[in-house]
Amino acid sequence: MVSDQIGDGSSREQAASCQKVLGGFANLAQEYSTKRYRSNLINWGLLPLRTEETLQLPVGTCIYIEGIRTLLRSGASEVELRVLDSDVRVESEADVRALHPAELKAHTMKIIHATLDTLTDEERDILMSGCLINHYKNDAVPQDKADIAKSLFGVLPQDITLEEAIRNRTDRI
Asked: Mean pLDDT, the chain, as a whole number?
């Protein structure tokens, strides 16, 4: 979604969730009306991009952001957006992944300089996870049996296996 000012009167969660359901990956604005709207974008995994440049893009214009995961991991905020010409047809993420870097450069009409402004480490993690629900799910997934045991029972006695501890715990339920 691209607009001069986004989120005025539509800062509820549905404004961001509908964009995600429709396949959106980012919002680009000169400013966001409310912090709540920006937070909802992040929670739904949509990049809250802001630019000082005049935004006059026709509906259906494709914008490509190269290396966004690397940028999020690095803590950087400045983003280069490639506005692609109408010869590039994108219906899915797979279409984007199929584009060769030279092809993207050849079809770039304009570059917009934008920023993610200040993102906390947790906001960056949420965006990297795809949305807040995935972020919580990823945090909750134990990595191995030792982590499972610790999350379920604290510290296990040395003479009991995880399977025995689970059996004993479920017997008491």
From this structure: 80
